[in-house]
Design a protein that fits this description.
Structural class: alpha+beta
Number of strands: 12
Bound molecules: flavin-adenine dinucleotide
Oligomer: single chain
Helix content: 40-55%
Number of helices: 16
Strand order of the largest sheet: 2-1-8-9-5-4
């Protein structure tokens, strides 16, 4: 297994990464990447074992309902690069063990799974294409590269061209798991490609964005200063992929199985994180209500109760999802599609209302609270402490820090990232609705409806 130090060293492998118009050769020398890299590195040390053949215990398939629950509960606790690796590798395992793809593909997927876990690699999930006009099929796009495709078939592999957008932690991973973003039709064989590509392969480059605070003094960004991680547009400019890393090539009928499997793991992770984040929002609402001296006022209590209901229903959905796990023929446990998608949808659809309650309860200090620098400046410190204090129980500094956390988490650049990510990661609301409808027992519902309407004799 890798240590934190070995991970940080592994980032200097010639990968081509851009940020804000510049190529970044030394990721650790760029503050916007360095903090995220340190968080990923800490994740390595957390699970490190010097035993020969040791593996990260999270990167194995759950073989019991309790194991699946334990794994899913870890999502909010682990770094984002490890979370996407878990998503990528579990997707490969799901496709290899639950689909009817030819044996050769299944063997290659399992071999890559083995190699990635032995090497303790981090693997980004590359599924979302540029997609061009959303109204047109991949093969009908004016620019044929709008969806990633095979553009050459030399001996021993394929050459791919295209881009995968919004890829979380791409620049901080070692491998890219490339998959078709949706179902494909006959005539779209070249777009039906799934494979694994090292980040430093010739022709691969990443254009990054991040909401890491870029202020000279970022102490008043307590959340984004710790949790931000770059997302990347990953370019594949005629990249050669050897055959043993190709997991699908031309089988249009099987293209969607990757998106379905990744969607399940992405949404299962998203659901676990949302349940955790919902409790965090409730906590901030209660803290600021107490700091404002309003925690006993009825309309404030009602809003906090509503937030607590939201958090509790997300937790209930999470428990239902792992409690109704599906077991594969090989004895692996997978979260329930129905409960996972319903919960992820519910969490994403109602998040904005919960944030509205929090802002409503908190007041304008969310946006205008002075900074830590103002607190330290002898000319302003006493005023900040005096005028930000609202009750005897909470100091002005504490109230200011609660405002900072609320702003950073919900009302600033990272807050915006968080709100959009809740909606879009793992596919937008529509994607979850589609899966829900597929797994919901409509026949039973109709039967009940018919009985109520007296339509049955
Ligand atoms: C911060 C962040 C991190 C992400 N991380 C990853 C990642 O690691 N890996 C990855 O692969 N992806 C990632 N994504 C991408 C995410 O899965 C997509 O954003 C999501 O699937 C929506 O795709 P899109 O952004 O291209 O939007 P669009 O596809 O343009 O969707 C916009 C809206 O249009 C609707 N729509 C689109 N096409 C049609 C159509 N034909 N008919 C009807 N309605 C349509 C959608 O339902 C949606 O409501 C990430 C996204 C974000 C925001």
């Amino acid at each position: 297994m890798r240590t934190a130090a070995a991970y940080l060293e592994s980032l200097s492998d010639g990968r081509v990464t851009y940020f804000d118009g510049q190529r970044v050769d030394d990721l650790l020398g760029e503050p916007a990447f360095a903090q995220a890299a340190r968080v990923v590195a800490a994740g390595y040390d957390r699970f490190y074992s010097p035993e020969p053949g040791a593996r990260n215990p999270l990167l194995t398939a759950p073989t019991s309902a309790a194991g699946l629950r334990e794994r899913a509960l870890m999502f909010p606790e682990i770094d984002t690069a490890l979370a996407v690796t878990l998503g990528s590798l579990m997707t490969l395992l799901t496709v290899a063990t639950r689909s009817a793809l030819p044996q050769a593909y299944q063997d290659r997927m399992l071999a890559f799974f083995e190699q990635a876990t032995v090497q303790d690699a981090r693997v980004a999930e590359c599924i979302t294409d540029a997609k061009g006009s959303r109204a047109l099929r991949p093969a009908k796009q004016p620019d044929p590269d709008a969806y990633l495709r095979v553009v050459g078939r030399p001996p021993g592999g394929v050459i791919i061209r295209g881009a995968k957008l919004h890829i979380t932690a791409a620049s901080l991973c070692h491998e890219l798991l490339v998959m078709p973003t949706k179902s494909m039709s006959p005539g779209e064989e070249d777009y039906s490609i799934a494979c694994a590509v090292p980040l430093n392969a010739p022709g691969v480059s990443v254009i990054n964005t991040t909401y890491f605070p870029r202020a000279p003094d970022s102490r008043h960004f307590p959340v984004s200063g710790v949790r931000s991680i770059p997302d990347g547009m990953v370019i594949f400019d005629d990249v050669f992929v050897p055959t043993d890393r190709v997991f699908l090539d031309g089988e249009t009928a099987d293209a969607a199985v990757f998106a379905h499997s990744l969607g399940l793991w992405e949404r299962a992770g998203g659901m676990a994180v949302m349940a955790h984040d919902a409790d965090e929002l409730v906590g901030l609402a209660q803290l600021i209500a107490e700091a404002n001296g309003l925690e006993r006022v009825s309309h404030i209590r009602e809003k906090i109760d509503e937030m607590a209901l939201y958090a509790t229903l997300l937790r209930a959905g999470f428990e239902a999802s792992v409690g109704h796990a599906v077991v594969s023929e090989d004895g692996y446990y997978f979260p329930s599609e129905l409960y996972t998608n319903a919960t992820k949808y519910y969490g994403a659809a109602h998040y904005a209302v919960m944030v509205r309650h929090l802002h409503d309860i908190a007041g304008g200090g969310v946006l205008t609270a002075p900074t830590i620098g103002d607190l330290e400046n002898p000319q302003t410190s006493a005023y900040v402490r005096k005028y930000l204090q609202a009750t005897d129980a909470v100091t002005g500094e504490q109230r200011m820090r609660i405002f900072h956390a609320i702003r950073d988490l919900t009302a600033d650049a990272y807050g915006g990232w968080h709100a959009v990510t809740n909606l879009q990661s793992g596919g937008g609301l529509y994607a979850q609705r589609l899966v829900l409808r597929k797994h919901y027992d409509m026949a039973r519902a109709k039967e009940l409806g018919s009985r109520a309407a007296g339509l049955q004799s």
